[in-house]
Amino acid sequence: MKSLELNEAERLASLQLIRTENVGPITFRQLLGRFGSATRALEALPDLAARGGRKRPLRAAEPRHSEEELARLIKAGGGLLVIGEAAYPAALAAIEDAPPVLALRGRKALLSAPLATVVGARNASTNGRRIAASLGRRLAEEGIAVVSGLARGIDAAAHRGALDAGSETTTIAVIAGGLDRVYPPEHQALQEEIATRGLLVSEAPLGTEPQARHFPRRNRLVSGLSLGVVVVEGALRSGSLITARMASEQGREVMAVPGSPLDPRAQGPNSLIRQGATLVQSSDDVLECLQPLIAPPLAEAPGRHAAGRAEEIPAEPAGEGSDADQAVLLDLLSPTAVPVDEVIRRCHLSPSLIQSLLLELELAGRLERQAGNRVALIV
What we know:
- The protein has 379 residues and is α/β, with parallel strands linked by helices.
- It has two domains: 8-88 and 305-377, Arc Repressor Mutant, subunit A (Orthogonal Bundle); 99-294, 3-Layer(aba) Sandwich (Rossmann fold), CATH 3.40.50.
- Helix content is 43%, strand content 13%.
- It has 15 helices and twelve strands.
- The chain has helices at residues 8-18, 25-35, 38-51, 63-75, 90-93, 126-141, 154-164, 188-197, 214-224, 239-249, 267-274, 283-294, 323-332, 340-346, 351-363; strands at 79-82, 101-106, 115-120, 145-148, 171-174, 199-202, 228-232, 253-257, 278-279, 338-339, 367-370, 374-377.
- The strands form two sheets. The chain has a nine-stranded mixed beta sheet, with helices on both faces.
- It is globular.
């Protein structure tokens, strides 16, 4: 499907829709598929939530709040990118919970370059930092922009290595909070340099302070943007391993730098290698792994929409269900998360009707979507 630039009204409507209560990335895309535009989806929200059993009306986020958010972002030197626009990365659009709206500050053109992620331990060793910086520099020199999360240790070293390459292709930092927040505080200068020579990316509104719950969501962007992820040091239960797991689920290449079994920071990469990750001993190993993925153009992701041009979007059938249909579905759901595919197999309703009913329940605040396309009732 052809991707188009949105008109200003539709861009603001997209921002308003994703900032509305009970609307997440998956729900956003389903609403766009069903109604063809964010503007039409906003109009339909109250009725959908009421059918899902919501007692009080579901009100969309205030339009003025979206206007103010966009104005503040522009004043801060940033801009907005909505899924479906031509500049939105196809690789990221292909993941099931791709962020509908991205806040950007810096060189947006980097999103069209080949991208590779380098992540690792915050309490990195001297050798680990040196390896990360070397990888970052070499990848940038070869025209591959380096993606990481601007954390202490390996992330910062990879960003710095890419910046030191002196190449037009540099680095992308994915921020857990708003683009106007610096975390950790000592990375103020590094974040500003990336905003000038690279690109800052966030799905959070300006003013959002990064919290622990934001980082797993940030990590899915770090991996989702890239062709592959390289892990340089990290404990077994670290954020780096979460990023690697997400990369694997997203169909990305997973690579790891081995380390001494006596070093706890090597347990994560060593475990990944045992599970089939590509062993990395030098930058050449990373380039060899990524090169076959760079040559062919990425296929346009399924489900990318051209919001604001509803006539070019094949809208899905509304699929309104009855109270009896909803009761049948609710009998199969519980507070324990279950894959949507399993619900479809067990329920004698059409898949499109089930998706419609799930959408209504979510907008009503009765259903929660979880990772891995799973759903759970909220009690």
